[in-house]
Amino acid sequence: VLLIHGLIKVCLQYQIKPTTILLIVLNFYVIVMLTGAERLKIAYLFLLWSVYFRGTFRYVFFSFSLLSHLQIFTLLPAIAVIYYYDDFISVTTRLKIKKTTLIQLSFLIPMLLAMAVFLWEPILSKGLEYMEDYGSFLELLNITLLIIITLVVLKNNRVRATLAILSFFPFVFLLGGMRVNMLAVTVAIYFFMIENRMSHPAVILLMLYFIAKSVEFIANIFIHGNGFA
Q1: How far apart are CA 211 and CA 199, in angstroms?
Q2: Rounded to an integer, what distance in angstroms lies between the CA atom of residue 140 and that of residue 146?
Q3: pTM for this one?
Q4: 37 φ, ψ (degrees, to nearest 5)
Q5: Which end of the chain is more exposed for a tag (fewer CB within 10 A), N or C?
């Protein structure tokens, strides 16, 4: 209930239409989290709250999200692109950086380094485990198709969105498609929301595709007792 509530609150914040919100709620990845994946569900709840709230709360909730599930660490490069792309361009072209950016980085970098020191063993063990089970070049195709959709749909953030989604490529190969594709789709939907492009036909088709996967997943639960059967 809290996950759905957080998802709806973020959608309303970006003035998403009720029919489109319904398509998002029925998304395959949302259904997967609702039927299991407890720790990932909690991590996503904190992630949604970090998007919804501003100021200090944003950083606190995102920290909680990182600590709730190691998979969220794969989101860090994309978030760096989303929030610091303009600063990177400013530094490389005009050798200038905003004071607020320096303050944020002075807080974020030590915090992430501290997390890496304390969590490097479980991160490494999980990564090796997922490499054994899921690694495949074929799984990169989904990310490639997602990039094509964002290039078609977006107007103002094509480069930023492309770089953010491209950052998932190594993680998809190393950790497996579904686990990382979920976050890549989340990033794409975020860009569609901020540009008010959720009603674009290509986005609607993408949402309908995920609903079809949701139907198949639920049917497998009733028939085989396992949605991934």
Answers
A1: 16
A2: 10
A3: 0.82
A4: 50, 55
A5: N
Query: Exposed, middle or buried, 150 (CB in 10 Å: 0-12/13-18/19+)?
Result: buried
Q: Are 184 and 146 in contact (CB under 8 A)?
A: yes
pLDDT in tens, the chain (229 residues): 788 999 999 999 999 999 999 999 999 989 988 887 678 889 999 999 999 988 888 888 988 998 888 788 888 889 888 888 777 777 767 667 676 666 666 666 676 566 566 655 665 565 555 554 554 566 678 888 999 999 999 999 999 999 999 988 878 766 666 778 889 999 999 999 999 999 999 999 999 999 999 999 999 888 888 877 6
Contacts of 9 (CB under 8 A, 6+ apart): 48, 52
Distances 172 to 31, 116, 229 between C-alpha atoms, Å: 21, 20, 21
Query: How many helices, marked H, and strands, marked E, lie in the chain?
Result: 12, 0
Q: Hey, what are 150's tokens?
A: 């964002």
Query: Amino acid identity, residue 97?
Result: I
Q: How far is CA 82 from CA 87, 167, 208, in A?
A: 10, 11, 26
Contact 45, 223 (CB under 8 A): no
Written as six digits, the tokens of 178 are: 């579904």
Interhelix angle 99-134/56-68, nearest 10 degrees:
20
